Every structure is written in structure tokens, then in C-alpha cells.
Amino acid sequence: MNPQSTAKHKQITEAEYSVNSPALTKASGSKHTEMAFQLLLAIFSCVLLLPQPAFGITRHYTLEIKMQNVTRLCHTKSLVSVNGQFPGPKLIAREGDQLLIKVVNQVPNNISIHWHGIRQLRSGWADGPAYITQCPIQTGQSYVYNYTIVGQRGTLFYHAHISWLRATVYGPLIILPKRGVPYPFAKPHKEVPMIFGEWFNADPEAIIRQATQTGGGPNVSDAYTINGLPGPLYNCSAKDTFRLRVKPGKTYLLRLINAALNDELFFSIANHTVTVVEADAIYVKPFETDTILIAPGQTTNVLLKTKPSYPSASFFMSARPYVTGQGTFDNSTVAGILEYEPSKQTKDAHSRTKIKNLPLFKPTLPALNDTNFATKFSNKLRSLNSKNFPANVPLNVDRKFFFTVGLGTNPCNHKNNQTCQGPTNTTMFAASISNISFTMPTKALLQSHYSGQSHGVYSPKFPWSPIVPFNYTGTPPNNTMVSNGTNLMVLPYNTSVELVMQDTSILGAESHPLHLHGFNFFVVGQGFGNFDPNKDPKNFNLVDPIERNTIGVPSGGWAAIRFLADNPGVWFMHCHLEVHTSWGLRMAWLVLDGDKPDQKLLPPPADLPKC
Ligand code: C2O
Q1: Which of 122, 425, 501, 535 has the fewest Cβ atoms within 10 Å of its own Cβ atom?
Q2: Rounded distance, CA 538 to CA 519, Å?
Q3: Cα(508)–Cα(476) distance, rounded to whole angstroms?
């Protein structure tokens, strides 16, 4: 069953709507209108033929956040959905388009939606993280996210950005190139979004609530999913399998998205190799691989060339986690099935019912802790860096920062002598950046900054490097306590930033997929052990480093990124493993306005939710 085919959703396709010809959607009835309509259509068609229109169109979407009964693994639950769909509907736009997305909250929970990877140039009010760029949308309220997609094309996704609601509130966000602009690879026969998720039989909100109270690790998921479907390797799940039907001798573009809450994933298709062509909506130098590694918050476009002739077999497309931490995890495997459509000649011999009886091949996935594979894979990712898609790596750096990322503890805050379930029974799990575990404010940071009322909401001081340095990847210090605060790093407009993120071994080294809102960054270097400021920068790649919005900081190692702070606003940065974000592995950058009018944050929309 295709999860997207069942529910109605109000998607307006691009042919139906243009900002310059809203009459197109309303045309009806009278001859006069009809003629006007045809004329407009003619003009519109001409415009469509232009190789690169100077303008984009405006697309309207309505996303209703509502409860929906969904059954997986023989467990039925009422979950928070988008338009009654799980996963949410696919949103499509083109580079240059303006999106007006009305989000209506019809559930008891507060909600906000983040458009993960969208740069939000000067439109930070539409970014979405609750209490960072907006107050959440309350029950019965709505908010129109209004932004224009500038200089970006590729696969991204949207997800809820409050508590753990993104467990069920997510969907693909596909940005096509401008009209007439081709991909830097042969046009695929078909494009297929494949979005990975995690299924919990219990309510994810109850899981994180309990973990926050006890200080322990939250329960793990019961299954991984592809397009919401766990597949045949789980009990009571065979009917909920994602099936991709392909023709022989064609090329398919798979738009892979990791929307899982807490797990990086290996993904492989039996007996097929794929060519990686894009990551985080940035074209990369194509390379072939059997297996890809994709962290939560990352997207990867791959070309799948099908077998030249009908193979008389089907193939598992499987994913399971890459795990470096010491906590418990969901070690199960999701599988979808790649099925070949018989050609006309072979149709009689292999009727559809027989597809089920064909041999089914399974891929060999790397071991769950295969850091060697992870390192090799991430070293293969390079920006395309072509004439049309250059890698504009900042070559001069105004400010260098060194942040640690890792776990830690807070004291058990229970009164009446109760014990906690953290690493010890007197501690609770925490996580931090440079030992500051970020406390969520109760007012939105962006509004507080914009209205000059930040006093008591956040501190504009974040340390350039850890206040107490230690041997980050050596024997961990005895004191694992974090400090707690809402600290922002303030940057003047257009600051060129280099940031080294260093994993720590406190409570175990672990790979952390760090996500930065509002920017793409270049990953100029990566390594294991402690970053050495004297030696390591000599090996930085300033020519064709991968550009992305989420980077897996290697377990027990470091990653160096560069970005230009050319986007005024407050930008969240956090580990995209939701459990670590919940524990405080998060902070925010405040990028100030520039002097010129087009270097300033736009004023807030009138319907911006209030706290
Ligand atoms: Cu996809 Cu702040 O997250």
C-alpha cells in the first residue's frame, strides 16, 4: 500500500497556480472568463518555455496537523499526522519559488514545523524550531510559513520541531531546479522519495517525558520504516512493505531522507550499486557505492541503474543502524522490495502473482559499529565544484571557534530522596556543547532579540572554546557535570566562521550528527582523536569539500566546518539525534543585521504565534 495514496491533501500543483496569474485557479463558467483563461494559459505556456524565468511562482500549501489512527506491527495508535497522512505529503517547489504554507494545529499538542535545510534568507521567522525562531502554534491556531527558496535545489524534508513530535510529523520537501536548468547528470526515468523513519508502538511523547523525569535513556523504537512502512522482517508487518516497481534498463533517482529520531542508518540494495549525486541538496562529485550511510537530518540522492534485462528476481532494499554509543538501540532492519516489472514478452511467463514467488536477494550491510566504513564513505563525499555549481569555501576566516560535543550529567533533581536512572542513581543524563547544556527558553529567542527584550531570556555569551580544557578523547574526567544555560554566540553580519566540533569521551565517545539551521557549511576537515590546531589545518580541503547542513562528527574525533554568516537571525545548532537534543546538545547563533537594507532580517509576520 502506498501510504500517500489514501488521504486527501490539498496540494496545488505548479501548473495550477502562479503568483502572476491567480485567475488560473478560478477560471470557470462564462465565455469571457474562458477566453481570458485561454489567453493567460497561452502566456503562461510561453513563460514555461523560457529557459530560466527571472521569477519563481508562489505555491500555497495547507498542512493540517491532526490525529490519525495508524496501525503498524499489529499496534494501532492515534498519532499526530499531517493531513491524516503518515508520513506527511510530499511538498514540491522549484528553486526561486515562494512558499506560503499554512500550518493548522488541530491536535492537543503545541506544534511548529521546520523546513530542514532551507536557508531562510532574511526570513528566519519561518524557520520553525519552537522557542528559537517562534513560539509554538497552539491548539486551534494556525501560522503561515512564508519563505522563498534562493539558490537551492535538491532533496530536503520538513519535520515538527518541538519535543519528539517529529517522530510522526515529517515528509519530503523537494526542490526542482529552475525550469530549463538540467541536473548535472542524465535525466532519470523516475524520481522516488524514500524517507526513513522510526516507529514506536508507544507514544513517543510519553517516552521522552518519562526519560526526562527519570534521567535515564529513553526507550528505543520498535521498527525502522521506509515511507512509513517497516517491511517484512518484522512481526505482523509483511503487508506494510514499501515496494518499488522498476523497469529494466532505466535509471531511477532515489531521494533518500533520514527522518529517524535517533539512528544513523546504513542502506543498501541487494545486487545493485548506486551512484551518489547529491547530499543535503548540494550536488556532489558522483561516485558508486553498494552501501550508503545517512545520519538523521541528512539527505542523499542516488541514481539506481536497473538491470539491463528482466532479472527474474526481487531485491531487498534494507537499512539498519550505525551505532557508536554505549546506550541501548533498536538493532532491527527495515526492508523494502525492489521489484522488476516483467516486459511484454515475459509478462505471460511471469504474471504479477508470480512476483511473490521469485527469488528474493538480501544485501549485506556493514557491521553495526563499522566506523571504518563510515570514515571511507564520508571521505568520498566531495562538492561537485563545477562552473555552474561552484564550492564557495570561505578562504579567509574572521573567527575561529572550538566547541566540544558530547554527553554529561546533571544532578538528580528529585526531592523526596528518589533515585534517578542516569549513569548513576544520583545523576541524570545530559549532553552539552562546550559543557553548556542548553536550557530551552520559554520565550522565543528571535522575538526577544528583535524586540530588544532579551534580558532574562538568553545570554549573548558563548565561549569560543571550552572554559576548562581537558584531554577530550582520553580518559574522561571524574567530574562529568555540565553547566546549564541559554547561551548564544553573537556574530556580526558576514562574519566568516571556522568551527571545529570535537567529540568527547565523557560517558563514551559517539558519532553526533550536528545540524546547523540557516546555513550550509563546508566540511573542510575531519579526523580522530583530539584536533591539533598546529597540524590539522594544513590538511584542510579548501577546494572541493562537501557542503551540507548536517555533519556526523566522527566518534572520538572532530570535524572542522566553515560558513559565511550572511543570514541575519537566530539559528539553532544541535545534534540531530533527538535524544541528545533533548539532553541539551544544542545552542544558537545570533547573526546581527548588516548595514544595507537587504542585509536585515525582515519584520515578523502579523500571525507569528505568541508564547
Ligand atoms: Cu532537522 Cu533543528 O532540525
Answers
A1: 535
A2: 25
A3: 9
pLDDT number for residue 45: 43
Closest Cα to atom 3, ligand 1: which residue? 116
**pLDDT for 417:** 64
d(CA 296, CA 121) in angstroms, rounded, equals: 23
Number of the ligand 1 atom closest to the C-alpha atom of 128: 2
C-alpha grid cell for residue 429? 543524563
CA gap 170, 150 in Å, rounded: 22
Selection from 434, 405, 408, 325 nearest residue 575 by Cα: 405
Atom of ligand 1 nearest to the CA of 572: 2
How far is residue 224's CA from residue 330's CA, in Å, rounded to a whole number?
A: 8
Residue type, 111: I
* 134 secondary structure, DSSP code: B
Cis-peptide into 87, omega within 30 deg: yes
Cα torsion angle, 305, 310, 312, 314, sign: positive
Residue-level length of the chain: 611
Question: Which cell is 558 given?
Answer: 572532530
Give dist(CA 300, CA 513) in Å, integer. 15
Give the binding-site residues of ligand 1, using a 6 Å CB cut-off: 114, 116, 129, 159, 161, 297, 515, 517, 572, 574, 576
Using an 8 Å Cβ cutoff, are 92 and 139 in contact? no
Residues of the chain with pLDDT under 50: 1-53
Residue 159 CA: nearest ligand 1 atom is 1
Neighbour count for residue 102 (Cβ, 10 Å)? 16
- 608 Cα to the center of ligand 1, angstroms: 20
Distance separating alpha carbons of residues 335 and 338, to the nearest angstrom: 10
* Helix or strand (DSSP H, E) at 578: helix 578-583
Whether the Cβ atoms of residue 528 and residue 554 lie closer than 8 Å to each other: yes
What amino acid is encoded at 288 in this protein? E
How buried is 465 (Cβ within 10 angstroms: 0-12 exposed, 13-18 middle, 19+ buried)? middle
SS3 255: strand
Please give the torsion angle defined by the CA atoms of residues 592, 586, 511 and 568, in that order, rounded to the nearest 10 degrees: -20
pTM of the model: 0.91
Q: What is the DSSP string of 413-444?
A: --SSS----SSSTTEEEEEEETTEEEPPPSS-
pLDDT value at position 415? 67
CA 587 to centroid of ligand 1, rounded, Å: 12
For residue 166, the ligand 1 atom closest to its alpha carbon is: 1
Q: State how far the Cα of 316 lies from the Cα of 359, in Å rounded to an integer.
A: 11
pLDDT, residue 23, reads: 29
Query: Does residue 336 sit in helix, strand or coil?
Result: strand
Query: What is the torsion angle, in degrees rounded to the nearest 10, for the CA atoms of residue 579, residue 580, residue 585 and residue 590?
Result: -50
Q: How far is the C-alpha of 80 from the C-alpha of 201, rounded, in Å?
A: 13
CA distance 57 to 65: 25
Point out the ligand 1 atom lying closest to the alpha carbon of residue 117.
Answer: 1
CA 18 to ligand 1 center in whole angstroms: 30
Distance from Cα 15 to the centre of ligand 1, integer Å: 31
**Cβ–Cβ under 8 Å, residues 562 and 498:** yes
CA nearest to 402, candidates 252, 201, 559: 559
